[in-house]
């Protein structure tokens, strides 16, 4: 289904292989998912994406589970099937319970609803909200 | 700038006034923001929106600050200026620090980036991600 | 605020002027709104857009008010402020009552909400829905 | 393909079963489509969604077929495959003819086109359009 | 998977057949892709779409390959799987190299990222950018 | 209008100042636009965004003007007013003529239109387009 074939480990350039090695070490699993196998056609893009993702999703002022749920929410709003699947799986692996998932869905739906109604009404921003 | 004028307290129908009373009581402030003043033209839609929002954003398995940040993330992805402003203000009021906000922006940007690249590549969903 | 200045009647090329004449005749008003004054920088694009819009929005199996409401709904979903304003005004001019507008907003909000939740859940299409 | 398995009738909680009973009674068919079978994992979200959908899509100032076509238009703009399929099927069941469908497609396409061009030009809203 | 069956050559109305003949002559291939076979249910929409596409995508101030890459970029941003596939194939047929494709993906991703962050920050447009 | 105040040169942290110095040197102008003044609240995000932008937009297999036009196209599709303004200005500074701009608008509009119609029709991807 993709616009490029997915690269197997045997097809990787040395630069792409180095990124795959880091992904495996960081995630402590041998499994490397299809996104990286598609990106591997362009080792520079693969490297830049992985390097940035690793920083952005690391523990910080927000914990990694919150970050994954934010990722799911944005991916749903942007209609990215692949990303919804992969980050929902990651969120579960990081501890998202069924109750948390249900509330995530409810917020995503509520936000989409009021976003649409506000945009249809073209409501003017309150002075109180502006920095 | 809106498609309807914003209603002042004096313009409200009794049904709309009752909702405004609840908003004020729940939020413990006299201030009612423009969204509700636009929605008040249709008291049934106002009532349904408020009743649902109150439930969805209440404390649960996710805490209210996480819910507000999810709301900001979806609103940014959907391009709703008003909602970005109002929910960013709410998130700050609920304790979002500058560090948390910076990380929220970084995740929103990262997700949008990979959403776009994955969609451009039409990467096939891994079997491992499907329920 | 635009990326091009709005052209006044005195600035129009003959090709653009001819389109403005048709807009005025069709709508039976001297007023030509900003969209056409921005498009007028490119008379070929202006002509193609007006010619197609006239056909698409004409009475047919759907009446013009339904078409305007569909236009508002799509414009809200796409986050186009200008289009929301202009087509909401057109819908009112064609007879959209406050009750109809309230129901339009409710459907737009409901659709946005379930769109987001379905996308987050990645629900598989029922065989019964496929042609 | 979903992020959750679809629940069969035997898997339902009593709260979810009650909603399914209402869906069957309202629609006068035994068939309950996949959306509800995915939502049924969270009976509260299922209940809130069904209760609201029933109100929003009921006959009112707009007839149910117009509402379904609005739903299709928003779902297409939001890129929700499932929703496009399910609401196109519903619109046909409520009487949408091939001619009406062709005109719906034409309006959706025209709106998307002008939305994109207006947004690219950042056309300023006419004073005449503001409430 | 579509909402309408794809029409084979034997199913075409005379008006649709005439458009197919033009597509084949213009593209110098017997192959007519699924988009046109779905649109063929509405010969007027088929005709209008083909006539406009032919003009828009013709060589001009921008060369056809640049136009195809713009089409891919917009289609990815709008989440249209079909369009991403068909226009990526067209761009390759018109000479898009692997290096060009990698850079296209990088720009699409970068733009999506900064679009999201700017929207989240609601940055005010610089006076210097306004026409 | 933003969610954060824009930082003047006097407000910058040393890390942010270093990025501003690079922006000025690279662009050969003293002017630093609002996007960077908003991002400067988070020097790490500012640094990461600038470093990546510089690489992505540099001359390569695609020339910088084509990259700017792709950026405009994606920004319009994503509804980012600020980005549309800033990258349209950049494209003009890099040589985009009125004719090129008109064709860019025409492609963006055409793509948005067919994206919407294809999504509404849920056309199945041709085998011929899949890698």
Walkthrough of the structure:
The structure is a homohexamer of 131-residue chains. Chain A is mostly helical and 131 residues long. Helices cover 65% and strands 0% of the residues of chain A. Chain A folds into two domains: 1-56, AhpD-like (Up-down Bundle); 59-131, AhpD-like. Chain A has helices at residues 14-27, 34-39, 43-56, 64-77, 81-93, 98-121. In chain A, helix 1 (14-27) runs parallel beside helix 3 and helix 4 (64-77) runs antiparallel to helix 5. The first copy, chain A, is elongated, with a radius of gyration of 18 Å. The B-E interface holds B 72-73, 76-77, 79, 81, 84-85, 88, 104-105, 108-117, 119-122 and E 72-73, 76-77, 79, 81, 84-85, 88, 104-105, 108-117, 119-122.
Can you tag this structure with a few keywords?
homohexamer; 131 residues; mainly alpha; AhpD-like; 2 domains; 65% helix; 0% strand
Task: Provide the fold topology.
The structure is a homohexamer of 131-residue chains.
Chain A (H helix, E strand, L loop, with lengths): L13 H14 L6 H6 L3 H14 L7 H14 L3 H13 L4 H24 L10
Helix pairs in contact in A: 1-3, 4-5, 4-6
The chain-level structural class of chain A is mainly alpha
* Number of E strands of chain A: 0
**Count of folded domains of chain A:** 2
Q: From the structure provided, what is the oligomeric state, counting identical versus distinct chains? A: homohexamer
**Count of alpha/pi helices of chain A:** 6
Text of the CATH class of the largest domain in chain A: Mainly Alpha
Rg value of chain A: 18 Å
- CATH topology of the largest domain in chain A: the name is AhpD-like
Task: Give the SSE order of chain A as H and E letters.
Answer: HHHHHH
The poorly predicted ranges of chain A are: none
Provide the CATH architecture of the largest domain in chain A.
Up-down Bundle
First-residue to last-residue Cα separation of chain A:
46 Å
> What would the principal axes of the Cα set say about the shape of chain A?
elongated
CATH superfamily of the largest domain in chain A: AhpD-like
Instruction: Please report which band the strand proportion of chain A falls in: under 5%, 5-15%, 15-25%, 25-35%, 35-45% or over 45%.
Output: under 5%
Q: Main β-sheet of chain A, in a few words?
A: none
Largest interface: C-D, 71 and 70 residues
Q: Can you give the helix content of chain A as a percent range? A: 55-70%
Average pLDDT rating of chain A: 97
């Amino acid at each position: 289904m993709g616009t490029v074939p997915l690269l197997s480990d045997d097809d990787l350039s040395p630069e792409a292989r180095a990124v795959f090695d880091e992904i495996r070490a960081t995630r402590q699993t041998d499994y490397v998912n299809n996104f990286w196998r598609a990106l591997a056609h362009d080792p520079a893009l693969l490297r830049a994406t992985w390097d940035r993702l690793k920083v952005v999703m690391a523990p910080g002022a927000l914990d990694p589970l919150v970050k994954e749920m934010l990722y799911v929410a944005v991916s749903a709003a942007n209609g990215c099937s692949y990303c919804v699947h992969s980050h929902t799986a990651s969120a579960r692996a990081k501890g998202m319970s069924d109750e948390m998932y249900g509330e995530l869905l409810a917020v995503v739906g509520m936000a989409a609803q009021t976003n649409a109604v506000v945009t249809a009404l073209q409501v003017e921003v309150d002075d109180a909200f502006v920095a």
